[in-house]
Specification:
- With about 450 residues, this protein is mainly alpha-helical.
- It folds into three domains: about 15-120, Fumarase C, Chain B, domain 1; about 125-205 and about 255-370, Fumarase/aspartase (Central domain) (Fumarase C, Chain A, domain 2, Up-down Bundle); about 385-440, Ribonucleotide Reductase Protein R1, domain 1, CATH 1.10.40.30.
- The protein has 21 helices and six strands.
- The strands form three sheets. It has a two-stranded antiparallel ribbon with strand order 1-2.
- The longest helix is centred in the N-terminal third of the chain and has 38 residues, at about 125-160.
């Protein structure tokens, strides 16, 4: 770790920087500038295709290549130049406009016909909202969804690997009807998979319609152009869903929808982390030992479940910030206020904390193995669990007060196999039903747990 990471204030840029490297070219100031430069250039090119704008020639291949190179070759020196201009303008979008005018003037012979149409009829959020939409789309489909798929794949594989291992369940923290390790894990897989499906179906919106969303400046300059149609084509060509009705800003409702979905996914993972942590505490899971790693600074025997604790903590941080964004971003006073501007600059932060958490979870899952012996021992100490199937069969054959009889039996003495079988022998039910009940043991009283796991693996 070099001095930069050691001196970073935020841990996602310092201690955890390896988990967030992929975000630097998207949500850093450099990344944000690059995406905005791209939107400005694409809008300029769009204008050149409109026949009614006779003052701007239809760009030939040479000019388009120059413009495309400005986007494709954008580098840190370009970003620094924009920031230098911003020191004078005190306005980031205007700095980008001046940067592009200078760049095009240097590279295109007939630049006078072009530079006046840079940022034509645009308000700042016409550029910013589209840049953020592209940034979020890239992050979701190139980074977030692959992360989610990897987590789902690992959890699904573990569920199949452990599908036959019977385990004592706990409801309200108390011993309850047995299940299998695989079935308990596959429950989380199914919950998480639903969120992935929902995330993929959320539309990422964008707009480009001027200062208050009515194309006022556009119409003032070219009243016969169908700017509404131009806006739609431009936004959809960026791979986004067009939002035709806005104020000065795109209202960020889709961001709230996305963050709500991510929060649900993360919350399910918090639940998963907590359960795995608990099973490690019960010694149902062991953590693989690495000789050089230290669990405690004073207690040599300890192997702490740090990966699951780290994951839970970072998921909580990510969710906390997203919860604020969900409540704030759809609200803007009158036609707009600038609170969203500073808040949106933290979108990369919430993804960052989530990615740190995902890495910790995946690392933790590689370290755990089932402690089969301890799970079995815990099960065989709990023969009272069979009160449930016995009283249910008694109900079937019309024996009154079945529940109360089993309550009386199991709450007043230590229950073992002999107690259970002696009680079964006293029941007035067919002999073959008694034999079936006697074949039930704590480790095979698992219902359809195995087949339910197999069903999701088909």
């Amino acid at each position: 770790m070099n001095d930069f990471y050691l001196s970073a204030i935020s841990p996602i840029d310092g201690r955890y920087h390896k988990s967030t490297l992929m975000l630097k070219n998207i949500f850093s100031e450099y990344g944000f500038l690059k995406f905005r430069v791209k939107i400005e250039i694409r809008w300029l090119q769009q204008l050149s295709f409109i026949p009614d704008i006779t003052e701007l020639p239809n760009f030939n291949d040479s000019i388009n290549q120059v413009l495309n190179n400005i986007v494709n070759d954008f580098n840190y020196d370009d970003a620094l130049e924009i920031k230098h201009i911003e020191k004078t303008t005190k306005h980031d979008i205007k700095a980008i406009e001046y940067f592009l005018k200078k760049k095009i003037t240097c590279k295109v012979r007939d630049h006078d016909l072009i530079i006046n149409f840079i940022h034509f009829a645009c308000t700042s959020d016409d550029i910013n909202n589209l840049a953020y939409a592209c940034m979020i789309k890239k992050t979701i489909f190139e980074i977030l969804i692959p992360y989610w798929k990897e987590i789902l794949s690992v959890i699904k594989c573990l569920s199949y690997k452990f599908k036959n291992i019977s385990m004592l369940s706990r409801t309200h923290g108390q011993p309850a009807t047995p299940s299998t390790v695989g079935k308990i894990i596959i429950n989380f897989y199914y919950r998480l998979k639903r969120q992935l499906i929902q995330l993929k179906n959320i539309n990422i919106l964008g707009k480009i319609n001027g200062a208050t969303g009515n194309y006022n400046a556009h119409i003032a300059a070219y009243k016969d152009i169908d700017w509404h149609k131009i806006s739609q084509n431009f936004v959809t060509n960026l791979g986004l869903q067009w939002n035709p009705y806005t104020t000065q800003i795109e209202p960020h409702d889709y961001m709230s929808e996305i963050f709500s979905c991510i929060i649900r996914f993360n919350t399910i993972l918090i639940n998963f982390n907590q359960d795995i942590w608990g099973y490690i505490t019960l010694n149902y899971f062991r953590q693989k030992v690495t000789d050089n790693e230290i669990g405690s600074s004073i207690m040599p025997h300890k192997i702490n479940p740090i990966n699951f604790e780290n994951s839970e903590g970072n998921l909580g941080l990510s969710n906390a910030i997203m919860n604020y964004m969900i409540l704030k971003l759809p609200i803007s006073r009158w036609q707009r206020d600038l609170r969203d501007s500073t808040i949106l600059r933290n979108v990369g932060v919430v993804f960052g904390y989530s990615f740190v958490a995902y890495d910790s979870l995946l690392l933790g899952l590689k370290k755990i193995e089932v402690n089969y012996e301890n799970i079995q021992k815990d099960l065989y100490d709990k023969w009272q669990l069979l009160a449930e199937p016995i009283q249910t069969v008694m109900r079937r054959f019309g024996i009154p007060n079945s529940y109360e009889q089993l309550k009386h039996l199991t709450r007043r003495q230590v229950i073992n196999k002999n107690n259970i079988h002696e009680y079964i022998n006293t029941l007035e039910i067919p002999e073959f039903e008694k034999e079936k009940l006697k074949k039930i043991k704590p480790d095979n009283y698992i219902g359809c747990a195995i087949s339910l796991v197999e069903e999701l693996h088909k």
